[in-house]
Structures are given as structure tokens and as C-alpha cells.
Amino acid sequence: MEIVIIGTGNTATILGRKLKAAGHVVVQVFGRDTTAASKLAYELNTESTNYWNVVYRNADLYILAVSDIAIKEILEELRLPDKTIVHTAASVSKNILKNAATHFGVFYPLQSLKKESTHLPDIPIIIDASDESTLKELEILAQSISDTVVEADDEQRMKLHLSAVIVNNFVNHLYALAESYCNSEGIDFTLLLPLIKETAERLDYISPAQSQTGPALRNDTDTIKKHLEMLKKYPHLKKIYETFTESIFTTH
Amino acid sequence: MEIVIIGTGNTATILGRKLKAAGHVVVQVFGRDTTAASKLAYELNTESTNYWNVVYRNADLYILAVSDIAIKEILEELRLPDKTIVHTAASVSKNILKNAATHFGVFYPLQSLKKESTHLPDIPIIIDASDESTLKELEILAQSISDTVVEADDEQRMKLHLSAVIVNNFVNHLYALAESYCNSEGIDFTLLLPLIKETAERLDYISPAQSQTGPALRNDTDTIKKHLEMLKKYPHLKKIYETFTESIFTTH
Lengths: 252, 252
Prior knowledge:
The structure is a homodimer. Chain A is of the alpha/beta class. Chain A folds into two domains: 2-152, Rossmann fold, CATH 3.40.50; 158-251, N-(1-d-carboxylethyl)-l-norvaline Dehydrogenase, domain 2 (Orthogonal Bundle). Chain A is 47% helix and 17% strand. Chain A contains ten helices and eight strands. In chain A, strands 3-2-1-4-5-6-7-8 form an eight-stranded mixed β-sheet, covered by helices on one side. Chain A is elongated and about 70 Å long. Chains A and B meet through helix 5, helix 6, helix 7, helix 8 and helix 9 of A and helix 5, helix 6, helix 7, helix 8 and helix 9 of B.
């Protein structure tokens, strides 16, 4: 497939790498940041541009991998009659694309993508499209770079994204709070990495509701009291501790 | 080393398996639950008992792997002059053991241990002891089952445990809340597993404070508002969402 990638950020970069690795040809990278665009184009063995009037017109697919705000701005200028365009955003309706091209859809990678990554993680791809033939086309493309391809409409995609915010953004924030606490107390945060990985990997075979443990679950008030005492200097983390202790106790 | 394991729960079982796999001899399992004790003894190719007066007297080490409350109860009965005893508890002082045996210490596995596990995870071992020779002995034993062995006193061990509660119990609770939300909304929670694993594995090479992303970090009020609207039916999760959104925003 001949593909134009619009965007130069994390999503554009990682999707570009995955697509190239699967044998697709990225014919052009569009980016308003010339340096970033030429860097990504070089990596994907293609050319870059930052002028709409020279965007390649004969690609099979245009992937709009930019921020939610940039999608709106770009769509004011971009018209690709008879072509297929997709965006990669979780929270933006598919129909925002309806005036930009004849065929349109969504190609949402349900993964945290960082261009600094030295590996390409597994990426479930969530697709949606304006019509059956476009959907089929996107499904085939997605299957060429992922073992997990699922169709979901705007509403379902938003729900997936909300869940992703919980298990990625919020979980990562807990890691960051723990790291900050360890650093302040002279404790080595990396000692916790095997525990962190085991907690994540265990989900393959046991539901998190079943594997819950800890002082809050046991209503071990002695330990909880000690911990809150230890967190006196950390009011922010103390509040999180109290919220979770109550939430775990109430849930179980 | 000849070892007596006191306890039949998750810690006793997993430590027993690790020790056996490293070539140590578990000479006896003590447990008040006869069925559990004989089951673990059978797995470890040894005998079990539930009577203090028949506890094997010539072991090199007695590992007290029971709950915090059970430690106190057992220590009312157990006297092992000239022997070495350790407990495996995060939040219990080393000195609780000082009347039970001449040499004593702590052998705390910093991992979430489940006897149902089909694999043996990496387990950092946190040690402490009454004297230098016991510490050395515990260090050698710990190194025979783990690549990560660290000395920490009562206070440092408590701090590690508090951190473990955050990155294991609290993180797992977020997984459970997300799973429950997905189930209620007819969304497949397993689609999130690659994201969950990537979030954990990334800590090997990037600090969580640096890799934070998401609507709260970007102060993307449109998305946050949509999410809170979607959580109207889930007041409990909505409160967690608000707490994290504020906490992430304040931290960064």
C-alpha cells in the first residue's frame, strides 16, 4: 500500500515504523515542523513536505496522525476527493473527516507510543470506516501490523480511551508518585520493578478483582495507620493513599 | 541448607518452591491447617506437622512465613535456642524475634506471591539480621534464589512496603476498576493488556515522571469533561478520575 503520513509525532513515527516493517511504502511525510518531518521521512526512506499544494495525490491512504486540535486545523485546508483518509484519535468523531475525502475512517492504536522506544510494542488497532469497503481495506492494513484488530464506533472508542487513561496515565502517575517518595526517602525505586511487572503480567491469567491483596483489603488498620503516619510529610500522596484505601475497602 | 518452613500460605509456598529449586532441603513444614501443611510438604518432598513439640530441632534456619498476627501468636510458644529464625513480614520489627532464638532476622520477599502461579517470578529479597554472621548467612541464602538482595532495617523495609502497596495494591485496584467499567459497557478489557504491559516495562529505561501523558497532563479540558460525563453512572470511578486528574495536573 502507498501511504502518506500527516504528522511527525509519536503516533506518526511508530505507525510509520510498523508500516514500513510490514512492507508498505510511505510515499510522503507531511509535517509543519520541517526538521521533524525530514527526520521521520529519512527514517522511513521517503520524502517530506510542509506545503499542502505539493502533497502527493495518488496514495492509497492518508493517515492523519496529529493532535485533536491539529486535526481540525488541517481539515480546513485538506481536500482529497476519491481518496481514503483516516485519523488516529481516540476522542474525535469519525465524521469530522466527511468533507475531506470520499472514503474515511479511524485507525486508532490502543497503545502508549513513544518515538524514543527502542522496540515496537504490540499495538491493538481499533478501526472504523465510512463504508464497508473502506472498513475491509483498513482491516487488512491493520492486520498487517497487528494481531489484534477490532472494529469500534466513536462511542466504543471513547470508552476504550477512558479505560486506557485509567490503566496507563493513572497507573503511570502512581509509579511516578512512588518513585518520588522513594527518592525522597533514599530508597531504590528499581527494587520495585519485578513487583510492578508481575502485577501487570498476572492479568494474563487472573482477573485483577480476584488478585487484589494488601492492607486495605484485609482492613489491616495497624498497617494503614503506620503508613499514613509515614506519609505526613507527603500530603499529596497521603490523599491518594486514603482515597485508594477507602475505594478498595468499599469495592470488596 | 536444612530449613523448616512455618506457614502454608502464599509466601511459605513460593519461598519453599524457590528454595527447593535452588537445592536446599526443606526438612519440615509446620502449619496449623493440617491439609494445607501436608499439601505443601508433599510438594516440597518433606514431612509436615502441626504440633510444636515435634518441630524438627536441628535445622539451620526456621522461616516464619505467616501473617503479622500469627507471628505474635506463634512466638508465644516457639523457643529455638542456638538456632536462627527469620520472619518474612514487611511491617513487623526484626526485634519481635529476639526471645525466640539466639540468631534472628528478616527475609522479606518484595514481590506479590500467589501459590496458584504457574511460574516463579523474580523476587528481590530484603534482609536484616541480629548480627553480622547471621546477616552473611541470610545474604548467601537469598543470593541462591534471587539476583537482587538488599539489606534494609525495619524503617527502610516499611518504606519499601508502603511503596509496594502503591505500585501493586493501588495499581491493581485501578486495573480492577477499569475491568469492571469495561464489563459494564460491553468493552473487551483484554484489549488493554498490551498497553498495561508496555506501561510497566517502559520503567526499565524511562522514569515514570518523564513518560507521563494523557488529557490531565495536557490540561485537555474537552476530553476530561467528556470522560466525566461518561462516568456519571460510576460515581466511585468518577471520584478516582477527578483525584488523579487534579494530582497529575498539580504534579507537572
